[in-house]
Design goal:
The protein has about 110 residues and is mainly alpha-helical. About 80% of the residues lie in helices and about 0% in strands. The protein is built from 4 helices and no strands. The chain has helices at about 5-45, 50-70, 75-85, 95-110. Helix 1 packs antiparallel against helix 2, helix 2 (about 50-70) packs antiparallel against helix 3 and helix 3 (about 75-85) packs antiparallel against helix 4. The longest helix has about 40 residues, at about 5-45. The protein is elongated and about 65 Å long.
């Protein structure tokens, strides 16, 4: 590889590492938001504005897509599993305690890969 080619490859690796660090930092915050949304679901329908499950889904979707793009396959797979679980929930219904426990476990799995 020529000197310019090596410099380009180094610049790409450096940029990818920077993007990965930013993604991980953002996703740590997103996991906190997921847990907050789950707490609203746990508190019952009076404490959920109808958006908690959708918020968790949206954050999991972002983690899945960006994680996959950055090559963080285990994290992406964990987020995809959470997405599928939420998609299986009836629209507009608050998931029962067993499903909420599964959601919590999936959020923990995402966190474990950060």
């Amino acid at each position: 590889m020529s000197g310019a080619g090596e410099a380009d490859a180094t610049a790409v690796r450096s940029r990818l590492a920077e993007l990965t660090r930013k993604f991980v930092a953002r996703t740590v915050g997103d996991v906190g938001q997921m847990r907050d949304s789950l707490a609203r679901l746990d508190a019952g329908p009076d404490f959920d504005n109808g958006r908690a499950l959708a918020e968790i889904h949206q954050l999991a979707h972002r983690a899945c897509g960006t994680g996959g793009t950055l090559g963080l396959c285990a994290l992406s797979d964990a987020a995809a599993a959470l997405e599928r679980l939420i998609q299986a929930c009836p629209a507009g219904a608050v998931p029962d305690a067993a499903v909420r426990a599964e959601i919590a476990a999936h959020i923990d799995a995402i966190a474990a890969h950060l």
